[in-house]
Design brief:
This is EXPERA domain-containing protein. It comes from Allacma fusca. The chain crosses the membrane at residues 7-27, 39-56, 68-89, 109-131, 143-163, 175-195, 207-228, 268-287, 294-315, 335-356. Keywords: Membrane, Transmembrane, Transmembrane helix. By secondary structure, the chain is mainly alpha-helical. The chain has two domains: 3-196 and 361-371, no CATH class; 199-359, no CATH class. It is 66% helix and 2% strand. It has 14 helices and two strands; from the N terminus they run αααααααααβαααααβ. The chain has helices at 3-28, 33-59, 64-88, 97-101, 110-120, 122-135, 141-164, 171-180, 186-192, 208-234, 243-248, 263-286, 294-315, 333-354, and strands at residues 197-199, 357-359. Strands 1-2 form a two-stranded antiparallel ribbon.
Length: 377
């Protein structure tokens, strides 16, 4: 990454932090609830517009897809970045203390903190990588698909839990759910853009594809068994060997919000409905020479959903606010095996298919991104 791009990115983050601080300061010193809500929303909207205008200038791209996808992802991950910072230094927060201290169990719990951290750190880094690639004229379609799918996976868990909760849904929660619902359309926008690749059978005489298949297929099969075992355990089926999961993966049965469908169960249903079918398809095509183009995109979706879900199962037992009975010893190897195998399988699947990936239009050095037919995202 060039020094100029790094400085632009750093300046943008500082601008976001400054806007968060001003909004938080306004809410902190406002006593009227209606003023706090409307004023905070107004400042948030003005801040978002200023940040969009600033990024549009240094990113050298001004298309509707860029604003609909890149900027939405960036603004949300920036917000979560500063929430994460304040949460880590709590009670000495600085940027968004009023949001963190709000008594709203549907927005402040183990699951939401883990997802906030995941979006505010790993996905935020990917968003900056996307901006760098946009600025240097490189394709961003695959990275955007990964990030938009991760956010859609969060929505697939967050939405049903909020909508079916017996708790009173506050105005702030409704606003967040409304904003978050936009994420349902982002993967479709990315997939609608022109493909910048094709899958070719060009590796018949090479050893690495065979090695990767030998590693990936068993791990995919193990991942399917792990997801099914998580589902059975969550339903109270604790016969051997499922009792191993309850002992070493306690987040499966976490239900830390009363009168609310557990986030963990919501995530497990996402695995069963989305990931199990993709695992079957992935295994089948490992034994075929011809790879359909959709396999690369499906592998990105698969890796993204698994990484997002497993962030909860991996980080939850180590989070200091998780109830004691749901924590695990960091040296528990069974815990790490159960939860890292699916992540490894997802990314090995990507590595395996990537070898067949050939760009349709390799960008020439120094070419302006606007000239590429990469969907203009």
């Amino acid at each position: 990454m060039s020094l100029r791009t790094f400085l632009y990115g750093l300046t943008t983050n500082l601008l976001v932090g400054f806007c968060c601080y001003l909004t938080n300061l306004f809410i902190e010193h406002s006593t009227d609830p209606e003023t706090r809500l409307t004023g905070g929303l107004g400042l948030g909207i003005v801040s978002a517009i200023l940040i969009v205008l600033f990024v549009s200038r240094w990113a050298t791209l001004n298309t509707w897809r860029f604003h609909a996808v890149n900027m939405v992802l960036f603004l949300h991950s920036s917000f979560n970045f500063f929430v994460t910072i304040d949460k880590l230094i709590e009670p000495n927060g600085f940027f968004l203390t009023e949001y963190i201290q709000a008594e709203e169990p549907l927005l402040h719990n183990v699951w939401t903190f883990i997802m906030t951290f995941f979006d505010g750190i790993p996905l935020h880094i990917i968003n900056y990588t996307i901006f760098y690639r946009v600025r240097t004229g490189l394709t961003t379609r695959s990275l955007l698909l990964f990030n938009t799918t991760a956010c859609f996976a969060m929505l697939a868990q967050f939405g049903p839990v909020i909508l079916t909760s017996g708790l009173t849904t506050r105005t702030t929660t409704k606003i967040f759910l409304g904003i978050f619902s936009l994420y349902a359309f982002l993967p479709a926008i990315v997939l609608h853009s022109a493909r910048d690749f094709q899958l070719e059978n060009k590796l018949e005489k090479k050893v690495m594809p065979v090695v990767l298949s030998v590693l990936t297929v068993p791990l995919l099969a193990l991942s399917a068994l792990i997801f099914i075992s998580k589902a059975l355990t969550s339903q109270g089926i604790l016969d051997w060997p499922l009792d191993v999961f309850l002992q070493n993966d306690p987040m499966i049965v976490l239900n830390d919000i009363k009168d609310t469908y557990p986030y963990a169960l919501s995530q497990i249903w996402v695995y069963l409905a989305v990931i199990l079918p993709t695992i079957v398809v992935s295994i089948v095509y490992h034994f075929r020479k011809t790879k359909p183009h959709f396999l690369w995109e499906m592998s990105i979706v698969q890796a993204s959903v698994i990484a997002t879900g497993q962030a909860f199962f991996l980080m939850g037992p180590l989070y200091w606010e998780t109830p004691e009975e749901f924590r695990v010893d960091p040296l528990n190897m069974s815990f790490w095996a159960i939860n890292l195998i699916p992540v490894a399988a997802g990314f090995l699947q990507l590595a395996s298919i990537y070898q067949y990936n050939s760009p349709l239009l390799p960008p020439s050095k120094g070419t302006n991104y606007r000239r590429h037919s990469y969907g203009q995202i």
